[in-house]
């Protein structure tokens, strides 16, 4: 699909690309999920090769900056539904072409056009970066919530949530590294210098979130391990308490002559010995603070 905006005589209007004269009018062509005939039309109007246009639709395309005598090409990775997607920007002194396989909500006003096409390119890329920043803020909030949950108790869903956030951070890092590769080569103007600073700040936040996520995961695993150790200690104490009574009952279960065998109160005496042995074991465990 094609959407064409023309800036002429300080006014901005929508216009079909067929009726647009790029030599006389400053034009922004926004193209997403284009058909073959639309690619041919862009090629006819801008002299951008169809191969270059198709490269911007390839999700495995490497981020880069290409400069030709007629236009500059920027290929970036941007976020769409929390997944990295390929996004292309062609720009010259007379036109901007944005192209992708997905529909991104992009908008330019008359104020941006008045400051020049280079500023428009900066504005569009900066807008795309805000989506990355927004996702980082969401991840930071979720990590804070998970950190509280880990401190209070441990839940089975935490590990799955942490690995889901780890996957999101990986996607964000992939997008941000594409910006860091391309932005420094774009221009020395203050716009792109500011853009590079934003990229570096976002990368630092991403790295900080990655470290925080790893710390929370370590805390969770330590909590699970401690809980398991406490459970195993409880089972060990319980087994130790019944160990001597089971030994005594086993001995008296043998078909041999034993002490108190002829005594009419032998049963109660044996039970009493078992109870006393268990009581002594409990006192010992409490002295060692195992109970």
Question: Can you summarize the main beta sheet?
Answer: 7 strands, mixed
Mean pLDDT: 83
Return residue spans where pLDDT drops below 50 for at least 5 consecutive residues. Answer: none
CA-atom Rg in angstroms:
35 Å
Task: Label the CATH architecture of the domain at 1-108.
Answer: 2-Layer Sandwich
Helix content: 55-70%
Give the strand order, joined by hyphens, for the main sheet: 2-1-3-7-6-5-4
**In DSSP terms, counting alpha (H) and pi (I) runs of 4 or more, how many helices?**
7
CATH fold name of the domain at 1-108: Beta Polymerase, domain 2
Listing every helix as H and every strand as E from the N terminus to the C terminus, the arrangement reads: EEEHHEEEEHHHHH
Could you state the oligomeric state of the chains shown? single chain
Going by helix content, strand content and strand pairing, the class is: alpha+beta
The 3D shape can be described as rod-shaped
- Looking at this structure, what is the CATH superfamily of the domain at 1-108? CorA soluble domain-like
Structural summary, described in words:
With 291 residues, the chain is of the alpha+beta class. Among the domains are: 1-108, CorA soluble domain-like (Beta Polymerase, domain 2, 2-Layer Sandwich), CATH 3.30.460; 233-287, Methane Monooxygenase Hydroxylase, Chain G, domain 1, CATH 1.20.58. Helix content is 59%, strand content 16%. It has seven helices and seven strands, in the order E-E-E-H-H-E-E-E-E-H-H-H-H-H. It has helices spanning 36-46, 50-55, 110-114, 117-152, 157-186, 190-252, 266-287; strands spanning 2-8, 11-14, 26-32, 64-67, 72-80, 83-91, 95-100. The protein has a seven-stranded mixed beta sheet with strand order 2-1-3-7-6-5-4, with helices on both faces. A hairpin with a 4-residue loop joins strand 4 and strand 5 (72-80). Helix 4 (117-152) packs antiparallel against helix 5 and helix 6 (190-252) packs antiparallel against helix 7. It is rod-shaped and about 120 Å long. The model has no long low-confidence stretch (mean pLDDT 83).
């Amino acid at each position: 699909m094609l959407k064409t905006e023309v800036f002429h005589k300080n006014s901005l209007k929508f216009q079909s690309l067929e009726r647009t004269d790029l030599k006389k009018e400053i034009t922004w062509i926004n193209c997403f999920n284009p058909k073959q005939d639309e690619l041919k039309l862009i090629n006819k109007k801008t002299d951008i090769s169809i191969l270059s246009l198709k490269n911007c639709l390839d999700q495995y395309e490497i981020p880069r900056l290409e400069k030709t005598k007629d236009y500059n090409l920027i290929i970036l990775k941007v976020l769409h539904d929390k997944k990295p997607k390929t996004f292309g920007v062609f720009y010259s002194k007379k036109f901007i072409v944005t192209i992708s396989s997905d529909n991104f909500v992009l908008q330019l006003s008359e104020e941006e056009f008045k400051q020049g096409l280079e500023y428009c390119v900066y504005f569009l890329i900066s807008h795309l970066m805000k989506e990355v920043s927004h996702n980082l803020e969401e991840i930071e909030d979720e990590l804070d919530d998970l950190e509280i949950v880990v401190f209070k108790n441990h839940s089975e869903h935490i590990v799955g949530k942490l690995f889901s956030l780890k996957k999101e951070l990986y996607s964000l890092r992939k997008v941000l590294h594409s910006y860091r590769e391309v932005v420094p080569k774009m221009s020395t103007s203050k716009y792109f210098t500011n853009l590079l600073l934003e990229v570096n700040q976002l990368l630092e936040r991403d790295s900080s979130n990655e470290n925080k996520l790893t710390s929370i995961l370590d805390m969770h695993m330590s909590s699970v391990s401690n809980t398991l150790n406490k459970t195993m200690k409880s089972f060990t104490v319980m087994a130790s308490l019944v160990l001597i009574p089971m030994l005594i009952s086993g001995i008296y279960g043998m078909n041999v002559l034993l002490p108190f065998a002829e005594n009419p109160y032998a049963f109660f005496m044996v039970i009493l010995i078992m109870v006393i042995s268990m009581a002594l074991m409990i006192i010992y465990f409490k002295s060692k603070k195992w109970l």
